[in-house]
Amino acid sequence: MEKIIRYAKKIIPTPVFTALQPVYHYFLAIFGTLYCNFPSRKIFVIGVTGTKGKSSTTEIVNAILESAGKKTAMVNGIRFKVGNEETRNKLKMTMPGRILIQSYLKKAVTASCDYFILEITSEGAKQFRHKFINLNTLIFTNISPEHIESHGSYEKYLDAKLSIARELKNSCKKNKTIIANTDDKEGEKFLAVKADKKIPFSLQDITSYELKQNGIDFVYKNENYHSPLLGKFNLYNILAAITFAQSIGISNKDIKEGLQKLSGIRGRVEKVQGGQEFDVVVDYAHTADSLRQFYGAFEGKKRICLLGSTGGGRDKWKRPEMGEVADTYCDTIILTNEDPYDEDPMQIINEVAEGIKKHKPIIILDRRAAINRAIKEAKAGDAVLITGKGTDPYIMEENGKRTPWDDATVAKEELEKLNF
């Protein structure tokens, strides 16, 4: 399908192609729903949207539900699962196409799953991938500028996110619930959308918290909780998941057990172990704000940071901002290739480098060689921080070329080569 669309773009005049896209996407949404016989009507559906933390929040919700003995299905940027069966998401899109989502909903219903957890993106909403999915609950994590060139402006990006909340209003389900982060400046806009229950969450709800090297300890509603996940950003994701779990009557015992069991999330602050005396951590952070929060989780360590700028041909404005964040937080900066698509990868790297003033970045185009160099730079107690791709299965290159990839796997291989 991707090859057909790429060919169509070449032969169909751009104004005509652009005008036809919404019709094409809407038709697929209708067809997928009819073909699978409206499966979302027959299962409890949880949607999670926002700029950051979506995949992590879906995974935390899933862990809590499983600890409560519930059978779950899930579609997110990391994996697809129905019950105990799962496959890695290798589509290079967080939210898959309309027919595939509907087919997973149908599989979940057939497998007698209790809950279906779905990560919903603005790009997906723009292409009607969320249409005809009857949500029970929508969780909003946060929002910051992203995909601006695709949507046209921040306001249109925000509206694409809000359209997901408006879809909740159209759901045929009873007791429709929206859960929103009110520490985010746009949180109240999500709570303003019509729903039967509106539940805000905020760090102000937490009595105290402590961010440690082995996780997070916090007190919430007079209960002590611990999660092995790292960083203040994950505390928000955890709080979103707890708020949802309590909204459907999950016990504190099951919530605590679910949090304890989830020791890590693939591609999200994922520690790579190879016997070394320093941290090697892979994370999907691909915006200035997510980099800032990720780097901040390793305060007190020498930070060796490997980054690029994901997505050749889009969001060029954020490249120097990402360089500036690395310049502020990192001790050593290695710039490398990520997903250039049809753009010159060195041009992307040079634009990231424009934001770096204090340090002299090391530029290594080959991503494996760059990871090898980062590991060689590290000493005991340091942190090698590899960002931008997370669990992305390919490096996307010119003319649709896909190079199979996994940052954590490559880091593990390079550690083994260096005899750690």
Structural write-up:
The chain folds into two domains: 2-261, Mur-like, catalytic domain (UDP-N-acetylmuramoyl-L-alanine:D-glutamate ligase), CATH 3.40.1190.10; 270-417, Alpha-Beta Complex (Protein-Tyrosine Phosphatase, Chain A), CATH 3.90.190.20. The protein is 40% helix and 20% strand. It has helices at 2-11, 14-35, 54-67, 98-110, 122-126, 148-151, 154-169, 187-191, 232-247, 252-261, 288-296, 318-329, 345-353, 367-377, 407-417, and strands at residues 44-49, 72-75, 79-82, 85-88, 115-119, 137-140, 177-181, 197-201, 206-212, 215-220, 223-227, 270-271, 279-283, 303-307, 332-335, 362-363, 383-387, 394-396, 402-404. By secondary structure, it is an alpha/beta fold. Helix 13 (345-353) links the parallel strand 15 and strand 16. The model has no long low-confidence stretch (mean pLDDT 91). The strands form four sheets. It has an eight-stranded mixed β-sheet with strand order 4-3-2-5-1-6-7-8, sandwiched between helices. Strands 12-13-17-14-15-16 form a six-stranded mixed β-sheet, sandwiched between helices. Strands 9-10-11 form a three-stranded antiparallel β-sheet. It has 15 helices and 19 strands.
Helix content: 25-40%
In order across it, which strands form the biggest sheet?
4-3-2-5-1-6-7-8
Number of separate helices: 15
Question: Nearest-angstrom radius of gyration?
Answer: 21 Å
Could you give a short account of the major beta sheet? 8 strands, mixed
CATH class of the largest domain: Alpha Beta
CATH homologous superfamily title of the largest domain: Mur-like, catalytic domain
Strand content: 15-25%
**N-to-C CA distance:** 43 Å
